[in-house]
Amino acid sequence: METRLRFAPSPTGRLHVGNARIALTNWLFARKSKGAFLLRLDDTDIERSTKEFAQGIEEDLRWLGLEWDEFARQSARLDRYGAALDRLRKADRLYPCYETPEELEIKRKVLMSRGLPPIYDRAALELSADEQAALVAEGRTPHWRFKLEGVAIEWDDLSRGRVAFDGKALSDPVLVRADGRPLYSLSSAVDDGEMFVSHVIRGEDHVANTALQIQLLQALGYRLPTFAHLPLLADERGQNLSKRLDSVSLSGLRDDGIESLAVTGYLAHLGTSQAADGSEDLGALIDRFDITAFGRATPHFDSNELERLNARVLHNLPYELVADRFGALSLDNADEAFWLAVRPNIRRLADAVDWWRICYDAVTPVIEDPPYCLTAAEMLPSEPWDESTWASWTGDVAAATGRKGKSLFHPLRLALTGLDRGPELKHLLPMLGFQRAALRLKGGAA
User: Fold this and answer.
1) Which helix H or strand E contains 264, and what residues bound it?
2) What is the pLDDT of residues 273-289, one digit of tens each?
3) Is the backbone peptide bond immediately before 384 cis, with ω within 30 degrees of 0?
4) How much is the average pLDDT of 327-345?
5) How far apart are CA 281 and CA 278, in angstroms?
6) How is the beta sheet containing 143-146 ordered, strand by strand?
7) In the prediction, which pLDDT does 235 show?
């Protein structure tokens, strides 16, 4: 059977880094296995799902480079869920319940006050036809529950190992709300079954859902996928990430100048014993992917570590991967020599603008030692200049002044760039050119 994995977000908010980690893990597993990756929008929550959030999810995934092979919307598959419900009714595995949310909450509190798990008591199964008709007559619309079998539910989880539940200790899940809307347990199971999903990789908050869905998949006659439940990603304060808590969003990282390769590299290694080094593209991440490498401990998202990795990613990026992005920064004339010169000294791509201005716009020099800088200016060689010019020029200045080390180089850097650190001046000097370099050394803005 073909390896097929899916990412099924709800378009009720923008993706955060926890969502992205699950999407990336599924995508890497699919690509490593030469299989298919499906994007499936769980958009049946009509009150909270929006077209803008759905478009945002696609935008975020494309920014990460996670292209999908197939696409589906659960809102377009309601007939499939209806057909599945019909099969469950015929198999006597689906039954109507008429309790109001308030009545169910009272039952739950009573059970918990007695130290008992809040398992539905199946009172609805005891209702006669007349009693059901009476409830309908008073205006109640039923919700529908799946009748679990009281047997052991077990599976070998790729992340957690052997997992076991007792069906008797689980509450019959609601599959359809009173308004007729199918809920996650039903739509997810039907979609996984009909789309031939071979592996389901998701957060460990779905472990109990998996136990329920295994029985549901079996009742509907679908093949069981292989499951993996990864520890949930926590933020720097130890809280689980959430759309509702405004956790770190991909769109926010993108707007802040974080590179997509920094995000994928960081998330692909988070929770493993390896650390990203900033040199890996998606192809390298595919080659090195191993689902068993993830540990059981809660991984913590560290924005400072992502910042450091972002700089390393930029320091490794070849010119051809950034050239088409310079236009948006008004750096249309930036060439490979400029990029190779400045990339070791930037943390965001936008930082390159500052060095472009230093090379080609007016800069007020910092003159630490006016007589020395004037002497150095008078010793500037004639053009053309190349990367050997800096060494030959400073060699002549050293011989003439007797200076060396910091006293030789530091005043020249301050005068030429206005800063005390930055890219190697052997790269910058040819970009400055004779006229600009001479004027700055003499204290003029150029």
Assistant:
1) helix 260-269
2) 999 999 999 999 999 99
3) yes
4) 94
5) 8
6) 94-97, 143-146, 174-176
7) 81
Closest by CA to 147, choosing from 175, 166, 126, 127, is 175
Q: Residue 237 — pLDDT band, cuts 50, 70, 90?
A: confident
Q: How many CA atoms lie within 13 A of 73 on its CB side?
A: 14
Of 406, 417, 312, whose CA–CA distance to 367 is shortest? 417
Cα distances (Å, whole numbers) of residue 176 to 124, 173, 179, 217, 224: 15, 9, 8, 16, 22
Q: How many helices (H) and strands (E) does the chain have?
A: 17, 10
Whether the CB-CB separation of 297 and 43 falls below 8 Å is answered with no
Cα gap 130→1, rounded to integer Å? 49
- CB under 8 Å, gap of 24 or more: what pairs does 159-163 form? 159/204, 159/228, 159/229, 159/230, 159/231, 159/291, 159/294, 159/296, 160/204, 160/207, 160/228, 160/229, 160/296, 163/207, 163/210, 163/211
- Interior CA angle at 201 toward 149 and 213, to 5°? 15
Q: Each residue of 356-375: pLDDT tens digit?
A: 999 999 999 999 999 999 99
Q: Residue 40's beta-bridge partner residues?
A: 72
Give me 147's structure tokens.
């009748």
Q: Cβ(4)–Cβ(38) under 8 Å?
A: yes
Q: What pLDDT, on the 0 to 100 scale, is given for residue 47? A: 83
Residues ≥6 apart with Cβ < 8 Å to 56: 11, 14, 15, 251
Residue 445: the pLDDT is: 83
CA atoms within 13 A of residue 209's CA, in its CB half-sphere: 18
Q: Mean pLDDT in the chain?
A: 95
Tell how strand 161-166 and strand 174-176 pair up: unpaired
What is the Cα Rg of the chain in Å? 31
How far is residue 217's CA from residue 225's CA, in Å, rounded to a whole number? 9
Cα distances from 178 to residues 140, 147, 148, in angstroms, run: 9, 17, 20
Q: Residue 46: which pLDDT band, with cuts at 50, 70 and 90?
A: confident
pLDDT at 72 over 80: yes
Is 143 in contact with 174 (CB distance < 8 Å)?
A: yes
Mean pLDDT of 179-194: 96
Which of left, alpha, beta for 311 (phi over 0: left; psi -120 to 50: alpha)?
alpha
- What does the pLDDT look like over 75-126, one tens digit per residue? 999 999 999 999 999 999 999 999 999 999 999 999 999 999 999 999 999 9
